[in-house]
Design a protein that fits this description.
The protein is about 35% helix and about 20% strand. It has five helices and five strands, in the order βαβαβαβαβα. It has a five-stranded parallel beta sheet with strand order 3-2-1-4-5, with helices on both faces. Helix 1 (about 20-35) packs across helix 2 (about 60-80). The radius of gyration is 16 Å and the shape is globular. The protein starts with 9 loop residues before the first strand and ends in a 6-residue tail after the last helix.
C-alpha cells in the first residue's frame, strides 16, 4: 500500500494592510493555533481602472507592491515571531474572486469588515459581502479596530 497524502487544515485570510485585515490575520492565527491549521494569508492586486499617464507607464510593479504590503502586515501583526505556520500568496485579480477560489477546501475564510476600498462607513465592505454570500466554507468577518476596553483589541465579539 502506498502512503496517502495528509491534508493540512487551512484558514484563508484576506490581507490588504488595513486595520481590520490585520485584526483578521491575528484572529486567524489564534484559531489556527487552537485547531492545528495553517494560515494562508492572501493579498490580491489588480490594475487600476484608469489609463493614460499612469503608474503603468512609470513601470510601477503592482505585484511587488502587494507583496510588500503583505510582508508589512505580517511584521506589524506578529513581529518576527510567527505563532503558527503562515503561508503567503499574492495574486492578481478581483479580490472577491481570488479569495473565493483560495478558500475552496479551506476550513474557514477570514476577512476584515472593511478594507482599503471606498465608502469606509459601510458596515461590511463589498468584498466581504460577496464572500459571505458565495463562499463554500464558513466566513468570519472581523470588525475593527475596536477599543480594547470594549470587546478586545481585535474587535472580536
Amino acid at each position: 500500500m502506498g502512503e496517502r497524502a495528509v491534508s493540512v487544515a487551512r484558514i484563508v485570510v484576506g490581507v490588504d494592510g488595513s486595520g481590520p485585515s490585520e485584526g483578521a490575520l491575528r484572529w486567524a492565527a489564534r484559531q489556527a493555533a487552537l485547531t492545528g491549521a495553517v494560515v494562508e494569508a492572501v493579498t490580491v492586486w489588480e490594475y487600476p481602472m484608469w489609463y493614460g499617464t499612469s503608474a503603468l507607464a512609470a513601470g510601477f510593479d503592482f505585484a511587488d507592491n502587494a507583496a510588500k504590503i503583505l510582508a508589512q502586515a505580517l511584521d506589524e501583526t506578529f513581529g518576527s515571531d510567527r505563532p503558527v505556520e503562515i503561508r503567503t500568496r499574492v495574486e492578481q485579480g478581483n479580490p472577491a474572486g481570488v479569495l473565493l477560489a483560495a478558500s475552496r477546501g479551506a476550513e474557514l475564510l477570514v476577512v476584515g469588515n472593511r478594507g482599503h476600498g471606498g465608502f469606509t462607513e459601510a458596515l461590511l465592505g463589498s468584498v466581504g459581502q460577496h464572500l459571505v454570500q458565495h463562499a463554500e466554507c464558513p466566513v468570519v468577518v472581523i470588525r475593527g479596530p475596536v477599543p480594547s476596553t470594549a470587546h478586545g483589541a481585535d474587535g472580536v465579539r
